[in-house]
Amino acid sequence: MAERDVNPMLKTALELGPVLGFFVAYLWLKDHVFTIGGTEYEGFIVVTAGFIPVLLASMGVLWYLTGHLSRMQIMTAVLVVVFGGLSVWLNDERFFKMKPTLIYFLFGGLLAFGLARGQSYLRTVMEGLMPLEQEGWMILTKRVMLFFFALGIANELVWRFLSTETWVYFKTFGLSAALFAFFMLQGKLFARYSIDEDAS
Fold first, then answer.
1. Global pTM?
2. Which of 47, 66, 115, 176 is the most exposed place for a label (fewest CB within 10 A)?
3. Cα(first)–Cα(last) distance of the chain, in Å?
4. Does the pLDDT at position 75 exceed 50?
């Protein structure tokens, strides 16, 4: 099914809004403890519990407007529900903090599996955005695979050895900045292997 056009600002708000909302809510409630059903929950757990339905609602609206959700968005939502739900159910923030690690290792592993078969699964997802020659896709896929594994390791180090607040800043801004910087640094590869669609 073809993706329907939607206002870019609205689409961006639906994609980033829940994450920024989580960040703001955490800063607001991080020092609070809530007693619910006789059990004490720290602010992080309460914010996580609120983040899950907000993310699902945002993705539902995005799907309604565009008629499309990427595999990455769907998988991310599944992992948020599973590991966010475990954090809330078991009152243990570690499960939610593990989620980015699993996401990056999962997608890095899928790219590695494709490369072992001589294929670029990244091309399947992004070809419409960046028309590249096959060799360019293979090089980019290898780089993205290694980058995803590096992000997964970085997330593990941050949540295990630094404070929860540091992890929230890292999750909200650090990972996004790293992704942006990574693709900006691929400019030479894009220039060398890009396909002139008009010429072709």
1. 0.84
2. 176
3. 25
4. yes
